[in-house]
TrEMBL record:
Chain ranges passing through the membrane: 91-112
Protein name: RNA polymerase subunit sigma-70
Species, as recorded: Pandoraea iniqua
A Pfam short name: RskA_C
Molecular-function annotations in GO: sigma factor antagonist activity
Length: 232
């Protein structure tokens, strides 16, 4: 993909996550996510960026007096008061000023927190469940040959079992283990001992005994699988 195409894809993913896309376009993006790993990776990146903002908002329970006050303020007897307020130009000037201020603050927050420069991965992989095709893990490989494995959903592991991470490129005689991973936890791995990454390189996570496969290759069922897609 060209840088322009990647930027357009990033913008589309951002609008999808924020929820500003029209309904028909949002449905189209949801369909594309099943077959476009790069778009799915962009959506996952935006969700990871936005989650810290959502976590900063503490839940607030409404007071017992709130609903009676709402009913009172919207009663028929207050129609004239609302009409005077609605027609008051000072109300609209104040509202416009408040909206403008909120827009500036939001732009600053989003610009600082969401558009902070981040390393651009050379390859991305979305590991999906073979059964329902739901994204489970995101793999990013950078120019420094560091691989990041990022969970996209919670996952339970059977007792006395472990998750093992594997990769295999075209031409390899057998897959190579990248080690055990913990469900729901990110992981960073150096690929210096492996050959250079290849487009379409296979990655998968299998269910293995607690200490991993005893024979050096996958023995258990495949829980998540995907292939590498270059981003440039």
């Amino acid at each position: 993909m060209t840088p322009e195409e990647l930027n357009a894809l990033d913008d589309l993913a951002g609008e999808y996550v924020v929820g500003t896309l029209p309904w028909a376009q949002r449905q189209a993006v949801q369909t594309r996510l099943r077959s476009e790993p790069v778009l799915a990776a962009k959506v996952a990146e935006w969700e990871a960026r936005l989650q810290p903002l959502a976590d900063t908002v503490a839940p607030l329970a409404p007071s017992k007096q709130l609903w009676p006050r709402i009913r009172k303020s919207t009663s028929v007897t207050d129609v004239e008061g609302w009409r005077r307020w609605w027609n008051d130009v000072r109300f609209w000037r104040t509202s416009a000023l408040a909206v403008s201020f909120a827009t500036v603050v939001l732009a600053v927050v989003l610009g600082v927190q969401l558009r902070a420069p981040a390393p651009v991965p050379q390859f991305v992989v979305v590991l999906m469940s073979p059964q329902d095709k739901t994204p489970a893990w995101l793999v990013q490989v950078g120019a420094n040959r560091k691989l990041r494995l990022i969970p996209l959903k919670s996952q339970e592991v059977q007792p006395a079992k472990a998750l093992q991470f594997w990769t295999k490129a075209d031409g390899w005689s057998a897959p190579m283990s990248l080690g055990l991973v913990q469900a729901g936890e990110s992981l960073e791995i150096s690929l210096d001992r492996l050959p250079p990454m290849q487009p379409n390189q296979l990655f998968e996570i299998t269910l293995e005994p607690p200490n991993g496969s005893p024979i050096g290759r996958p023995t258990g069922p495949i829980l998540s699988i995907g292939r590498a897609v270059p981003t440039t």
